[in-house]
Amino acid sequence: MGRAIVITSGKGGVGKTTVTANLGTALAQLGHSVVLVDADIGLRNLDVVMGLENRIVYHLVDAIRGKCSVAKALIKDRRMDNLWMLPASQTDDKDSVTPEEMRTLIFELKHQHDFVLIDCPAGIEQGFKNAIAGADEAVVVATPEVSSIRDADRVVGLLAAAEVPARLIVNRISAHLVKRGDMLSQADVIEILALDMLGAIPLDDDIVATTNKGIPAVLEGKSLAAKELLRIARRLSGMETDQRTAGVGFFTRLGRALGLSASPA
Amino acid sequence: MMWNGIKSFMTGRRSSEVAKGRLHLVLAHDRSGLEGGRLQEMRQEIAAVIAKYVKIDAEAVEIQIETRNRASQLTVSSQITPRNA
Ligand SMILES: Nc1ncnc2c1ncn2[C@@H]1O[C@H](COP(=O)(O)OP(=O)(O)OP(=O)(O)O)[C@@H](O)[C@H]1O
Ligand SMILES: [Mg+2]
Questions:
Q1: Nearest Cα to A86, choosing from A99, A114, A103, A105?
Q2: How far does the centroid of ligand 2 lie from the alpha carbon of residue A8, in Å?
């Protein structure tokens, strides 16, 4: 039985689809069998980020309505041995499926694959509820900005209420802005959200360029962002641990040791 | 006053520190479901209650909500005016 992981954020445009595509590809590179599920019904994008947009015949809503089998709606990524994608429908809306139907679908996929990564739509309404329904765990993506972190905090609360354990990825970190004091660091974000950390992805031109081409950055694997995404994939699959996974505990302890408090001045 | 505290807290600091301070406050309000303005109303009511028992300067009553590891804490503090003042 595989693991279903939802990639979510609350705020839109922070990198959920980019992270889903790259982590899925990286997990497949590591030898796992992976299916990517686009749960952003009506605004699908995982297909174009993966470069699979021309191969779609059936989609998630077809599979749920029984218009085709789940297996038939999956698109096989030909660049990898063991990577599939289930596209969202572009013509339906978020409430055309129920959390119960999603749970059944994800359960079926978990039987056949090691990892089911679910690309969640922005927001905290029906689309979010559907996307988290079948998930065993969550990855919360946040950028180091006030509005993104605030929205992520809402999502963390909702995930806790739904009893879905969550870990954090900070995306689009700019090292020189952090150094200059004009961007929150990953340690700041961890401290504020009190969440375990999976990794911090730099703001990287390579993500823009590879996304233009429909090739996940990890397939080329050269950029800093690609390297960090590969590292996160190894960590997600339990192949790598280091002290940074200690997340909250570690940073809280460090903070105490340095005499820093977790609350404002 | 608390707002002066926040203002000085926000001026002359690196923007990331300002962001951090603002986030701590905004999340404390979001997590507790208590709006900033409502908190100030509560401050006035609490000041009135305290004033029934001891002599205080109502403006000197401070109220603060903060959060640590997702748990929120409400703190009210007030100076008491000396008896012979
Ligand atoms: N680390 C990064 N460096 C540079 N650009 C990035 C990075 N991560 C994401 N982007 C870019 O940010 C934009 C938004 O990313 P993406 O579509 O993955 O966000 P999303 O959270 O899925 O958005 P939505 O909420 O609309 O579904 C894209 O143009 C993407 O290429
Ligand atoms: Mg998206």
A1: A105
A2: 9
